[in-house]
Amino acid sequence: MQTIDVTELANKAAKGPVKLVDVRMPTEYREVHASAAQNFPLDSLDPQAIASTLHASATDPLYVICKSGGRSTKAVQQFLNAGIDNVVNVEGGTTAWVQAGLPVVRGQKTVSLERQVRILAGLLTLLGAVLGFFVHPYLIGLSAFIGAGLMFAGITDSCGMGMMLSKMPWNRCHNGQCKTN
User: What's the mean per-residue pLDDT of the chain?
Assistant: First the structure.
């Protein structure tokens, strides 16, 4: 897999336009993103459609960025699997871009998806305990269900609650417009 340093990419962008795909959630993108980046979230990534939209060719590299490099690595692999070979992963992601003092677009601060999951899981666990104590003992099962779900998420590295929350209107952009929190 080809990679590029954020400083080297910024130098290329200063010489002419680059095709930079940001695969983070729309709310993350809205908060801060590299000035040249366009948002195509990983959870709905369609490599062929993106290549067509950006008029990507075999000679023009397609650069992929996320927060720190994990999601962009997965996205690059999806592009490669789709037969789009001239794809480059941006090392360190947006975090490295910001730390290097490179040009960014800043928007509204948002609550991260990870924090949303922790807030909802905590609320449901507390609710199950309170309802189990005051209403009916069987309602403590809600707390057990959430605990089992968190354990499953940790073991499989796949969070159903996070996937559900990512589909909520406040975490999506529609027609280029993000909902505010």
Answer: 91
